[in-house]
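Interim report, section 4.2 (structural modelling).
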Amino acid sequence: MEKGRIIKALSGFFYVQWKDRILTCKGRGTLKKTGGTPVAGDWVQFSLVNEPADEGMIEEILPRQNEMLRPPLSNLDQLLAVFAVKDPIPNLVLLDRILLRAEMQYFSSGICFNKTDLLVEEKILQLLEGYQQIGYPVFFVSAKTGEGIEGLRAFLRGKTTALAGASGVGKSTVINALYPDFQLKTGELSRKIQRGKHTTRYTELLPAEENTWIADTPGFSTLKASDLEAEEVRFYFRDFLPFQEDCRFQSCLHLKEPGCRVKKALKEGHIMQHRYENYEKIIDEIQTNRRY
Ligand SMILES: Nc1nc2c(ncn2[C@@H]2O[C@H](COP(=O)(O)OP(=O)(O)O)[C@@H](O)[C@H]2O)c(=O)[nH]1
Ligand SMILES: [Mg+2]
Ligand SMILES: [Zn+2]
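Predicted structure of the assembly:
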C-alpha cells in the first residue's frame, strides 16, 4: 500500500497526489464503516490498481488532524483571509467573521491585503494595519507588481492553507504571482479531471511547493448565528482578551453592563471602533435568532 493525499473529491472519484503524480481513485466500499467519506486534504492509504493508467483504490483514511465542513476540507494548518485594499473596498465585517470562524475552529490565520499598487486613503490603511496590532500576521501585497509576495510565500511554505475572501479581491492572481509555474500544473490537472465532466465548483488543494498546499475555497462560508453562543464569541475577539478579565462581571458581554473594561478600552482607543461594532452585530444576530 502507498500513502498519498487527496487533493480533490468529485463525483465519486478521488484525485490522490502521490509523488509527482495524480492518481484517480475510487474508495473501497468498507471506507464508510471505518472513516466515512474521504475529503480533499485527507491523507490516505491506497493500493495501485492500474499503475500505468494512474488508477488506485483508497483503502483507508488516515486520522484527521482537523476538518472543516463548509467547504469540506481536512488537515488544515491555517487560514488566509484575502482582501483588496481597494476595488473592492475591504469588507471588514466579512474579515472579522472569517477571523472569528478561524479562532473558533482553532485554525491560526493570517490576512493578505492585495492590490497595494492602487492608491488608498491613509485612514483605510490604518484600519488594516490595526489587525497587525491585534496580533494577526498581515501581508500587504500586490499580485500585479510582486510587492510583498515573497513574504507571503514564506508564510505559506510547508503548510496547508485555506484561502477565504470574496471574489474579485485577487485570490487567483495572488496564487499565480506566488507560484508562477502553477498555471501549467493546473492545466495538467484539469485535463485529467475532465473525466469527472462536472462544471460545478469544488474544493481543491493546489500542490504549490513541497509540503505546501493551497485551497482556494469558493464555497467558504462564515459561521451562522445558530452555530455560536453569545457567551463564547467574546473569547474569539483577540483584542478584547487583555481587558475582559477586568470587567466587573465575569459574564460581561460588553454591551450595557456596568463596569465594563472592554467598553472603557474602546473609549480609550485600545480597541478599534469597527471591531467592536462587528462584535455587537454578531451578538445581536445570535440573540435575535434565539428570540424567534
Ligand atoms: N491593480 C491590481 N489589480 C489586481 C491585483 N490582483 C488582481 N487584480 C485584478 O483584480 C481582478 C480580480 O482578480 P482575480 O484574481 O480573478 O480575483 P478572485 O476572484 O479573488 O480570484 C482582476 O481584474 C485582476 O486583474 C493587484 O495586485 N493589483
Ligand atoms: Mg478566483
Ligand atoms: Zn465587559
